[in-house]
Amino acid sequence: MAIATINPTTGETLATFEPHDAAEVERRIGEAQAAHLVLKATTYAQRAEWMVAAAAVLEAEVEATARMLTLEMGKPLAQARAEVLKCAKNMRFYAEHAEGFLADEVLDDPASVGASHAHTRYEPLGVVLAVMPWNYPLWQVVRFAAPALMAGNTGLLKHASNVPQAALYLDALFERGGFPKGSFRTLLIGAREVAHVLEDPRVKAVTLTGSEPAGRSVASTAGSHIKKAVLELGGSDPFIVMPSADLDAASTIAVKARVGNNGQSCIAAKRFIVHAEVYDEFVGLFASKMAALVVGDPLDPTTDVGPLATEAGRDELAGLVDDAVARGAMVLAGGSAPDRPGWFYSPTLIVGLADDARLVMEEAFGPVATLYRVADREEAVRVANQTTFGLSSAVWTTNADEEAWFIRSIDAGAVFVNGMTVSYPELPFGGIKDSGYGRELAAAGIREFCNLKTVWKG
User: How many domains does the chain have?
Assistant: First the structure.
């Protein structure tokens, strides 16, 4: 894929960028390594000052930056604005909490290990490579970069090739806040060059958010070189609705959970699993609310759903829907690409999926929801757990026993009760099974790329 900004609303190429050659990649890795040696010697207070200053830059430039995100990947402008501000919030969160999260932990009874004193300490690993996707061009990166830099690591970013302007904005952002030159560097390279960068001995670890195949490839390279990896891969999150649920609220949140970011989110609710007692009522509410969504120019404030980010992504989504219909599924809303320029796909609701339909097991990365009627909570969990993914989940119930049972029974990195999955700086985020391993955000996220060193004193 060429490194270019192509407006998904129109298909127009807005800007193209020359890839970095081998000499430039080498120079940037060297800068990141040199910056790490400086950064790890600074205090948390100094890093926090720089991080807060970088957050202030984001906040001051929110309107222009949000517009840039919308033009590059098509998310509605209000959502782009929210993404920019969420990044600033995350940066301020780690500026405030990093020192506490990485504080030394003293053993209360050192005599039990034959010592006069013993403690553990967290130390940065060094240069960390981040391989990031286009769906949240700033947030996916900043949720790694903020804790990594606050811990004393430095970052190299290989961003998706269709969001180069976001990548270059991030290349300068942290230095604009005061961080040493090279603390965070973008590499304008293709996917085939990732392994070469990861193999470099100066690069100590890797984090990837993206597809399962990409995760397998990067994890294989990292493993062969004994390097730490954190993977956040695909998801096909269940959204379970039980008879005690508030159906109006559940259906309203279901729409938001499915079509936010034009449906292009790993943690979006994708499979709606509804108890038979309330199935018809919920489906009626859900379908009417999906059909009422406004599809259009994401720069228009009245738009609910913009285009998919790439033509290939739109075609892949259409292929999943067409396969399901060919195998007997029924479309209750949407089900086609509107006749207009750009890479749009109508908000879609599908029922009656055959077991062999691709949509049963594969991730639908766009505004397509599948519905399942289940007889009881046991069947709901069986359907929820039947895919190879395990990122997040949502359960709607007001029955306390039922709530506790679902929390225990669902195979996922998170369970949200009577709400939709959202990532917060304060909560660990990540999945299990083919959705990856490791955690981002909260204390767990900043500790992923640190050496936990034990200190023993006789």
Answer: 2
